[in-house]
Design a protein that fits this description.
The chain is mainly alpha-helical. The chain contains one helix and no strands. The longest helix has 114 residues, at 2-115. The chain starts with a helix and ends with a helix.
């Protein structure tokens, strides 16, 4: 009976050692998994930061291009307005010259009739 009790204790001791060994192995695997997760999370956060920087740069570029586009439209509009003004001035000068020419032709005809 005493031998059986010692045998049971020895078996229980082996079982405890086995469980402790399994516990240590599981804790180690858990630590490794936690470290891998932390590393992956850090890498993911770094990739997100890099993409945010790239996005900000692209947004700045887009804003700059939009500003240039507005400025070019304004310049084109101003050039168009200037062209319209110059055209109107030239048309007015042409009309004035045509009137002057008509007046001169009338004078020439009057002189020709007086001399003729």
């Amino acid at each position: 009976r005493h031998a059986q009790s010692a045998q049971k204790r020895a078996a229980a001791s082996v079982q405890v050692e086995s469980l402790e060994s399994s516990k240590i192995a599981v804790e180690y695997q858990l630590d490794v998994a936690k470290k891998e997760l932390a590393d992956a999370t850090a890498q993911y956060k770094e990739e997100i930061r890099a993409q945010q920087v790239e996005l900000q740069a692209n947004e700045t570029l887009i804003a700059d291009l939009q500003a240039q586009n507005r400025q070019q439209k304004e310049v084109a509009s101003n050039m168009e307005a200037n062209a319209d003004r110059v055209k109107a001035e030239l048309e007015n000068k042409l009309k004035a010259l045509e009137q002057e020419l008509g007046t001169e032709k009338g004078r020439k005809n009057n002189l020709a009739s007086l001399l003729g």
